[in-house]
Amino acid sequence: MKKKIFTVLVLALAAACTFTSCAKKPEPKKAKYVFYFISDGTGVNTVQGAEYYVAQCQGVMGRAPLCMTSLPVFGVSATWSASSDVTDSAASGTALACGEKTYNSAIGLKTDSLTEVYSIAKRAHEAGYPVGIGTSVPLNHATPACFYAHAVVRKQYFDIAKQIYTSGFDFFGGACIHVEDKNNTPENQQLLADLAKENGYTVTYGLKQYAEQGKNADKIIMLQDPDVPDVYSLPYWIDRKPGQVTIVDQLRAEIDFLYKKSEEKGGKGFFLMNEIGGKVDFGCHANDAAAAFEEVLAVDSCVRVAYEFYKAHPDETLIVLTADHETGGLTLGRQATGYKISTNLLKSQKLSKDESTRHFQSLRDANNNKVSWEQVKQMLTDDFGFWDTVELTADEEKKLQEVYQKSFKGTMQKEKSLYSENEQMAATAVRILDGKAGLGWTTGGHTAGLVPVYACGAGQELFIPHNDNAQIPQNIAKAMGLEW
Ligand SMILES: [Zn+2]
Question: Ligand 1 centroid to 472 CA: how many Å?
């Protein structure tokens, strides 16, 4: 009798197992639609700062979770390169694109500076996927370049530009194609135009032209209008004006274009890389917290767009977002402000340091360079909320007056950072505001700080633990079922 009960129990257990965890698991779905996002210069602290900023602007203590930080998988990645603990965007771009650690400044080459390594984008292209490359900075800047080009030095912009057209990829979106001064001749510009034609690329400038000529092109290079205030990169999210191409517009165009291509191929899928946070890096190089945090929110808007796509294709979509390195050494907390940060103060800053520079320049131009302290004061109130929503100490006001004397009455030069030259008054206003907010910066360059890795969808589990940046494209290939 006992034996019979035992047998029944074993059979019952076996039956239960068939319907639960012991059942043979279905094959995991392959990632067919891949969104590979790179938020340049974005450390874990940059994202956390942006979450504090959103929360504090709503009068709430702590963090307001973003879409990206709500994705199911969160890991971190180290970013060291083969030549330095602190990477540049070329070495980290090569790692994130080609799965290879190389020296700072190398694009798609091994450390011998000769052997070419191939990106996940090229592998997807060879496997028949429509491929798109996007960025908010020049298309031949280091990060996007690593997905289609090879160069010994990242500043060989003209050589890298030529490789855009021979890549065969379907969609390119960026601010511009930059050519360094010594190669920027009419002959070379003609050569690039000829290459576009020979290789079947339509080149459009601005949203209107893209809508008219780009959407239905065979292969497209979508750039912004050359008449924007700064053609080198898309406008900072904080500065954007109606009609200008934003990173969200560009991403939507990229998705639509590639999805259409995918359908033409019988629903093949697509591979999309977009350096949606190219300007987070610029904002952090400039040590401009409001511009950088607003740019993280632009990145988040892009993630939201991808997440909508994922919801429509949940079994076949993979979203991965990471950064190539941290920039600026941003700290959340300062000795001077004690155990308190007040990122809500940044809301009073209505523009980037670059746009503020343009405002001060217009003020100079309109007044034949004879600008009064009262006029400067008014601009600081309008653009930074000083003496209005932001109270200043006597020392802070004294500092602003000193800078006024030196730069408006004297000959003090503009302040240089990696990607911009700013009015001393704009730079000082941002420095004062960031300091009052309890934020600190340790460098105008990069750091070796950890960066986040967020993932969602088919193959998301591959990105859970502590990642190495060179492993990430290999894991994406694995999720897509591509050989590496
Ligand atoms: Zn950088």
Answer: 20
The model's pLDDT over 125-161, given as tens digits with 9 standing for 90+, comes to 999 999 999 999 999 999 999 999 999 999 999 999 9
**How far is ligand 1, taken at its centre, from the CA of residue 127, in Å?**
32
Q: Rounded to the nearest whole angstrom, what is the distance from the C-alpha of residue 445 to the centroid of ligand 1?
A: 7
Using the mean position of ligand 1's atoms as its centre, give its distance from the Cα of residue 79 in Å: 13
pLDDT digits (tens, 9 = 90+) for 307-323: 999 999 999 999 999 99
Are residues 450 and 435 both part of a single domain? Answer: no
Structure tokens at 352: 């980037």
Who's near 66: CB < 8 A, 6+ residues apart? 47, 50, 51, 54, 296, 297, 300, 303
Q: Measure 17 CA to ligand 1 centroid, in angstroms.
A: 53
Range of the domain at 114: 33-330+445-480
What is the pTM for the complete model shown? 0.93
What is the Å distance from ligand 1's center to 278 Cα? 8
One domain for residues 392 and 469: no
Q: Are residues 315 and 457 in the same domain?
A: yes
